[in-house]
Design brief:
The chain has 179 residues and is mainly alpha-helical. It folds into 2 domains: 50 residues, no CATH class; 124 residues. 56% of the residues lie in helices and 3% in strands. The protein has 6 helices and 2 strands, in the order ββαααααα. Strands 1-2 form a two-stranded antiparallel sheet. β1 and β2 form a beta hairpin. α2 runs antiparallel to α3, α4 runs parallel beside α6 and α5 packs antiparallel against α6. The chain is rod-shaped and about 85 Å long. It starts with 34 loop residues before the first strand and ends with a helix.
Length: 179
């Protein structure tokens, strides 16, 4: 302790005098306990904090996001199947119907990504991107199953144009929840 009332010793090493402070909390640190970070010197406590809470989803939040995404996928999948069925019964032909179904699944990426981001409590966790991708695939599978039960030929779903549409939809959904 100096005469001016300010402590000049390291909190972890009381016998070491120091003027260096942690860039985050302001505690005095010495070269022995200092941890160099990209934003300056930190104390051991502040350097071990890890990622901010906005980037982390708890296991419970992830399970809720998975469950709600699965429920949402059922609703989106049924809606997708009905849209494809309507396009199938219109006299558009296989090519136009297939392209329209592909565009429909590609356009679903944005609302699905927003949905997953909201059920994930707007966290920027990269695992939510994976959930968004699986949600889009589940929507496509449910749409295929339900539309086939409605009498739509499954060739509308199983062709290169449909796969491209699904890929675009997955890409858009994943980018809506990206950190």
């Amino acid at each position: 302790m100096t005469n001016d009332g300010f402590d000049t010793t390291c909190l972890r090493h009381p016998d070491t005098t120091s003027n260096l402070r942690c860039g985050r909390c302001g505690d005095l640190i010495c070269p022995q306990c200092m941890v160099q970070s990209p934003v300056g010197a930190r104390c051991p406590d502040c350097s071990s904090i890890g990622r901010p809470a906005i980037f982390r989803s708890s296991p419970t939040e992830l399970m809720v996001a998975i469950a709600l995404s699965a429920v949402g996928a059922i609703g989106f999948g049924i809606a997708y199947a009905v849209i494809v069925w309507v396009l199938w019964v219109l006299p558009l032909g296989f090519t136009i119907g297939s392209v329209a179904a592909s565009i429909t699944i590609a356009m679903a990426g944005s609302p699905v990504g927003n949905y997953v981001r909201r059920v994930g409590k707007n966290k920027l966790d990269t695992r939510l991107r994976i959930i968004a991708a699986f949600t889009m695939f589940l929507i496509w599978m449910i749409g295929l199953t339900v539309a086939t039960m409605l009498g739509v030929w499954n060739g509308v779903f199983i062709n290169i144009v449909s796969y491209i549409g699904l890929g675009i939809g997955i890409y858009v959904a994943m980018n809506r929840v990206r950190p």
